[in-house]
Amino acid sequence: MTVIFSKKCEYGMQAVLYLAAHQTEGVTRVDDIAATLKVPKEFVSKILQSLTASGIVASKKGKFGGFALAKDPSVIRLIDVVAAIDGLEMFDSCVLGFPNCTPDTPCPVHDTWGELRTLAYNMLTEETLDKFKQKTINKIKTI
Amino acid sequence: MTVIFSKKCEYGMQAVLYLAAHQTEGVTRVDDIAATLKVPKEFVSKILQSLTASGIVASKKGKFGGFALAKDPSVIRLIDVVAAIDGLEMFDSCVLGFPNCTPDTPCPVHDTWGELRTLAYNMLTEETLDKFKQKTINKIKTI
DNA sequence: TAAATTTCAGATAAAACAATCCGATTAAAA
DNA sequence: TTTTAATCGGATTGTTTTATCTGAAATTTA
Ligand code: SF4
Ligand code: SF4
Fold it and tell me: A7-142: which CATH topology?
């Protein structure tokens, strides 16, 4: 079962957090990212390629090449990664899967779900990657 | 993209809400449920079969057969449907997909995500199906 | 220039999820 | 008893997601 975001999106967020945590060390090879995050190498490679196209990460080809953030971590938010990979559709849909989302015919859990979506959106929007650096480093150690 | 729950689970919740709203009328045919909810008939049929096995709905075979709730709607909660179909794993997982969920090495969004999961869990747990009756009827009209 | 190492790009494979089909069974009514 | 209308159960198909493979292009060092 999916927990809100696709695997692609989860790996994307993890990889970007990783890059933010290792930002000072220049580019990072996909092999290192995949090995420490324990995610499929070829898959995360593809994801980073697409995030390169989105302008979130930058790539350097050839020997001693790898990936790095394209911008300063203080201007990248997790929601940017979500928007680039899964899109923001989920913040506009119903948990129960009902169509025709209108305030005048709310589905049974309308109110609470509305709060939830806002909370989730804020969670991914309010902090930038640099704020996550230490927690990411701690987390990665335990994977 | 999935919004938390699988299609199977969404349809399951919708169907159960439908049955609660039509509870007074005895059993309901799958054809009716599928037609008004505009969901694939054979699929929702399979889902209702599995919910029968879970003891949430009851089935009556043969002519004038159909499905109905197995218990009074005042003792069925949406979380019961979720537990029967998707399981409760999501209330124990990370949005970012990190493993090793331990309080001492929290992933970057640990605190907010914890609140979110609790809120989602409560949303599906605190109210029973009978509370949703009127809203469900209104919602169904607009599908 | 040649060798080594890495990303890039496209094709393909495997797995999970969603949907459909069909024959069997059951039960009510004619 | 026969017909009719429904669920049941298993198999099958289709679609999307996830993962892998392979060869080309780029870049650094020798
Ligand atoms: S009724 Fe509420 S929860 Fe349902 S689709 Fe509309 S906004 Fe979403
Ligand atoms: S660190 Fe927090 S959000 Fe991440 S898996 Fe653990 S509880 Fe979930």
Answer: Arc Repressor Mutant, subunit A (1.10.10)
* Interstrand relation of A57-60 and A66-69 (parallel, antiparallel or unpaired): antiparallel
pLDDT tens figures, A105-131: 888 888 888 889 999 999 999 999 999
Which among A134, A7, A129, A135 has a CA at the least distance from the CA of A69?
A: A129
The residues lining ligand 2, judged by C-beta closer than 6 Å to any ligand atom, are: B 94, 98, 101, 106-107, 109-110, 113-114
What pLDDT digit, counting tens, does each position of A66-78 carry? 999 999 999 999 9
Please state the atom number of ligand 2 nearest to the C-alpha of residue B98.
5
Mean pLDDT of chain A: 91
Distance from CA of A108 to the nearest CA of B (A): 6
Q: Using CA atoms, how far apart are residues A125 and B110, in angstroms rounded to an integer?
A: 15
Residues B107 and B54 sit within 8 Å (Cβ to Cβ): no
Structure tokens at B112: 């907010």
Q: Could you tell me the sign of the dihedral formed by the alpha carbons of B19, B21, B27, B31, in that order?
A: negative
The model's pTM is: 0.92
Detail the DSSP E strand segments found in A2-95. Answer: 57-60, 66-69
Residue entry with tokens 């704020």? A131
